[in-house]
Amino acid sequence: MDAMGGDYAPEEIVKGAVLAARKDDVEIFLVGTVTILEKELAKYKLTNGSSINVIEASDVIQENESPVDVVRRKPNCSVAVAAKMVKSGEADALLSAGSTAAAAISAIQFMGMVDGVYRPALVGSLGSFAPNTVLVDLGANVDCKPHQFLAFAISGSVYAKRFLNISDPKIALLSTGSEESKGSDAVRQAYSLLGNSGLNFIGNIEGSDILSGKANVIVCDGFIGNVLLKFYESIGGYAQVWTEQKLKRYPPVRALVRLLFKSLFPATKISRETEKQGGGILWGVDGVVKIAHGASRAPSIANAIESAKEAVKAGVVESLKSELAKFSQGGKL
Amino acid sequence: MTVEDQVRDIVAKITRVDKSIITRQSTFKEIKADSLDVVQALVAVEETFGIEIPDEEAQKFQNFGDFVSYVESRVAQEEKV
Fold first, then answer.
1. Considering its fold, how many domains does chain A have in total?
2. CATH of the domain at A27
3. Is residue A70 within 8 Å of residue A80, measured between CB atoms?
4. Are residues B40 and A143, on separate chains, in Cβ contact within 8 Å?
């Protein structure tokens, strides 16, 4: 665990590690400044069998530094050291609530990419309204080259198979129209690549079809994906406020609406589902990398640890490698 | 294999572009290399040739040719030593 990354690091990271270690069969390595981490860890009583180790990382990334600098100037910062531990086999997964870019760059540089993948992507299920739909990329790649969309589609397909139990996921490209000619240059070139890939590609879909369930895997660049995800997660809260305002003259109905939103209306659960998983997996690097939200508190960190453990057990990296190998052999990647 | 060929191979592998389109006049923008591609290429070249490329030198590279020329001069220096 990158114990120094995150809005509430290292306090909440250490607390989250303690929570996870108490309830789970997991060995945790907290990577960062040893003196600080040991002081934090001393606040908690660990039960017998709990295993938390502290590993020194001599470099510290400052707020004004570019994440790219990790590679050349700060190769011993906490997230980089954690990535190297996964590469060497000392750890099975890396978890960071710090800069996504720094974690991604450390993973690329120190763990390496799976053959056929250029850059890692964030994959996530839309849950609630579209439980059988995943979106790729959720924000790791702002500008994408056409061949990246194919790797995104394969990653999303593996996710849908392993976590949603969909045997032959339907894949679509998010665009401004269903016709092949619609979208940016990269999207139009990607259409052709996906069409010839052998994947179950159903063509372009528009924004209005995202929640329809037409596609199990929706592929887009990280800029669109990240904007879309945050908008989607905000809908529930605003819908509740809007409905309550409309009903302010009818307090009993308003109370009922509040209750419905809190317990039944699915939109408000979207964030809770994301919270439950503690963030997303970075797909395409040669190892399990879990990216937790920067604002994660201890319970979310504990959930992220559990989720990273599940990803290791599910063999997501091996599944992705095996799926990608089929395309590499066919010369499509 | 010349230093230029080796550097070209490294850059082509990282940026995933066909090495035939990388000429000495090609800018990093023309070969669609972003900042991470450039840094990865610098690290790979440093490791391959056992040299260190200071940031202030790397920032002067206007195109692939500048990059290659710098690496060639450093490799020649190392050989003399």
1. 2
2. 3.40.718.10
3. yes
4. no
